[in-house]
Structures are given as structure tokens and as C-alpha cells.
Amino acid sequence: LEEGSFYYDAALWALSEGITTGATETTFNPGGQLTRTELVTFMYRFAKYVGVDVTIDEDLSGYRDADQVLPFAVDAWSWAVSNGIVTGMTADTLAPMNLTNRAQAATIFQRFDNAFSWA
After folding, report:
1. How far apart are CA 80 and CA 92, in angstroms?
2. How far apart (Å, rounded) are the C-alpha atoms in residues 79 and 50?
3. CA distance 117 to 66
4. pLDDT digits (tens, 9 = 90+) for 43-60
5. What is the rounded distance in angstroms from the CA atom of residue 97 to the CA atom of residue 84?
6. How far apart (Å, rounded) are the C-alpha atoms in residues 6 and 46?
7. Which residues share a beta bridge with 93?
8. How far apart are CA 60 and CA 67, in angstroms?
9. Are 52 and 58 in contact (CB under 8 A)?
10. What is the Cα–Cα distance from 38 to 71, expressed in whole angstroms?
């Protein structure tokens, strides 16, 4: 982390609250690209942070690329799919390792906002 950078305080907050663990245990990659798995995991951890029920009730076996979901992200993906936060890239693929773009991220943020009451 670069002290004084525009993202410094946000990255420290996300780390301290368990929303991110960084790119590795000792580094951040603030200018790097974000995979769908990383975004889904951030949303899942944020949901837990704000007190959203993150009960897992979705089986990912209907997606032919479910085996590409990294072990640390299985619960996050299951939660996101079961709550309609994320849908497949096709009817039967999640594309968990694909990079996400701004449009996809905005859609996920909106679905999250619509799914949970903030009042």
C-alpha cells in the first residue's frame, strides 16, 4: 500500500474488517485487474460485515465450470448465486476466473443493493 494514495484508507479499512486479505498475505494490487471470484468474495465478506444473512443454500453443481471456483470462494459463490447477486455468464457457466468489467461490477452492486434492505 502506498501511504497517501487515494485508496490507502479504504484498503486499510477493507483489510481491518476482513473484506480483503490483499493479493497475497503481504501485498496489495490496487491497480490490478479483478476476477469475478474476487468481486464475489468481496461482496460476500461485505455482506457479513453489514449483518446480511449469508446462509448457503445453493448447489453450484448445475454449472459445468463449478470446479473452477477456488475452494476459498465456494461459499461466496453459493451465497451470491442463491441471492441473485450473480448469475452465470451463460445458463450453465459461472466463469469464476474471468476478469470483471465495470458494467458487471455495477450490476452486481445494484443486485446486492436491491436484494437487501438498507433502511
Report:
1. 15
2. 15
3. 29
4. 999 999 999 999 887 789
5. 19
6. 20
7. 90
8. 9
9. no
10. 12
